[in-house]
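If you are new to this repository, start here. Below is one unmodified record pulled from the training split, so you can see the exact layout before writing a loader.
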Amino acid sequence: MAGKDRESFSGFESIADREKLLLARFAIHSTDTKGRKYAEPVQEYRGPFQRDRDRIIHTAAYRRLSHKTQVFTNELGDYHRNRLTHTLEVCSIARTIARALKLNEDLVEAMALMHDIGHPPFGHSGEDALNECLIDDGGFSHNRHALRIVEVLENRYPDFPGLNLSLETLEGQQFRAAKKDANASPSLEAQVVDAADSIAYDSHDADDALELGLLDIAQLMEVSIWSHAVTKVSEGRELSPVLLRRSVAHELIDVQVKDLLGNTMLELDRLQLRSAEEIKKLPPVVGHSEQIMHQKKDFESFLMHNVYRHPNVINVRDSAQQALRNLFEILKSKPHLLPENYRLRSQEIGLHRTIGDYIAGMTDRFAWREHARLSDD
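And here is the target side for that same chain:
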């Protein structure tokens, strides 16, 4: 490492004092950052994790999330979440949890905004297709690709490649990209983002599926966590189907957040942690009670069988995956069709990985357009 990002925190007294007052001992404080790969002057008005957040927001990869699939493509409608709105919802939930646990909200926000930045077009369907195309070249994972984006592909600064994010932000994403070890954990901030992601998609995927007509409320009443939420929000009043659906989506988030906070606070009280470093030696600390975990598993199993494997979703998914496979094969056989900067990059890292990088950076609509154009070439 060229240097630490703590080159005189003289300008950070207000940030350090505020964090000392507001954050728990086991939170990651800005003054304790391990720094960045490439040393940079400190900014007096922003802490290191604020800078990470801002750098992520200003990337092209982050902007493209607004036109990338979360679960449902645009062919099915325009109400449902895309990858960007999902990211913002995860960020909102994660910050709420972080504040209640007295963790570093700036770090949590940076991790949350980054967590899905590596997704290719067409969501997990596109990821599976690219992984198949690159199976002999290391495969493809959106979590690993997120690191590739922020460390290599986003060239926005003259003094270093990528975004030069703090090591704490990178470590959170590295945990997502690696196989989870039951005997080791990332920071509590990273654990919070992981939990918020699960809370967001459990609640919102059902909401989107109802709006698109892929599910009806009667089906969901078979799921305990959903039926309990319906009972809670409709107690003593009659709600329209639309208002009921939206109220239940809010209640599902509230139930899961409250349970997560209660269970996690009990565990933190038991552990009496003195520093953020102690977290790495323990199994995950942020988590739900057994009751809610059981209900979440049932809910996710229901969504898998009734939403993610719905014939309408599968039909669109299959078409999208075939388009990406075709696009990959066309570019592999005709590399001169790649943009010039990608052709140059292929000489350094190989053609297949370069094509993977190019396709992964596409939005849904650009992928369809390029597939149509190159197929007719």
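Two things worth knowing about this chain: The radius of gyration is 22 Å. The first helix runs from residue 13 to 22.
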